[in-house]
């Protein structure tokens, strides 16, 4: 199943995107909802919060007094870290349980406001970020949530910056404030990128690649994609994100190093080299890389003269129609050729 991480700053319009993705058929897992559930009355999460912050964070009915708790942790990095250490592991555990219970072939969208702040961007096949102008966000918080402009600015400042989110994004959805326009962008993303990506992932096949590297997908001016260096923080950051994801799914499987291949042709295709000791190690990576969205291309064994010793490489290619990425898994010059 395809996993999508959805995030965005406060009042950027993420809830509109999440609702539309659910209408289109995604299984939506809302981290804010889970965060409330894991500290509901009678849970060990609530007991842990009371142990850490005292009984003053409870209402007379025994519920969590979010206002009182917020007053304790907002602006206090230590207190916020303590609270996050209680809530976040429980939220992730519950999210994992719901993912495991989803039907095979489902598209899982995890709505996580602090996805970037908690370093989860490499845990998903695709990261979608919703962005809006800061003035528009402040106006929405003042008009719709009754906040003062000063409080709104403080909430924005406490989160990741737009630049940090863009660096973590595969797709950036720009929200100009018109709900219908944002929903149309989500529809394009769903039909032109997410569904084909999921179909390719389930079939274990790479995305079809048109001339120019990227086969297509959500290509409006307001949907920035990282396919050949547009959006997503640039080519180097795209490679870094993919490398972290591949490292995550292949821990303890014998990878020696992961590196970008400089001077790869064609220039609009990102190429990453994964160096392993031998063919046996390369074969151990086939399934985890396929699950991560990089199936091995059948019979695509090549001898890369950029690898010292001219050792053999096995080609993996992304299932994502919105980006052009090849991964060479190469035997080390010090290892056997298999």
From TrEMBL:
So what does this thing catalyse?
3'-dephospho-CoA + ATP = ADP + CoA + H(+)
Tell me the pathway. Answer: Cofactor biosynthesis; coenzyme A biosynthesis; CoA from (R)-pantothenate: step 5/5
Extract one GO cellular component term from the record. cytoplasm
| Group of enzyme by EC | transferase
Which Gene3D superfamilies does the record cross-reference, listed alphabetically?
P-loop containing nucleotide triphosphate hydrolases
Q: Which domain of life is it from?
A: Bacteria
Q: Which InterPro entries match?
A: Depp_CoAkinase (IPR001977), P-loop_NTPase (IPR027417)
Q: Does the keyword Nucleotide-binding apply?
A: yes
Keywords (alphabetical) are: ATP-binding, Coenzyme A biosynthesis, Cytoplasm, Kinase, Nucleotide-binding, Transferase
Annotated localization = Cytoplasm
Database matches in Pfam families: CoaE
One GO BP on record is: coenzyme A biosynthetic process
Concerning PROSITE patterns, the annotation shows: DPCK
Query: Sorted alphabetically, which PANTHER family does this protein's record hold?
Result: BIFUNCTIONAL COENZYME A SYNTHASE-RELATED (PTHR10695:SF46), DEPHOSPHO-COA KINASE-RELATED (PTHR10695)
Q: What is this protein called?
A: Dephospho-CoA kinase
The organism is: Tersicoccus phoenicis
Gene name for this UniProt entry: coaE
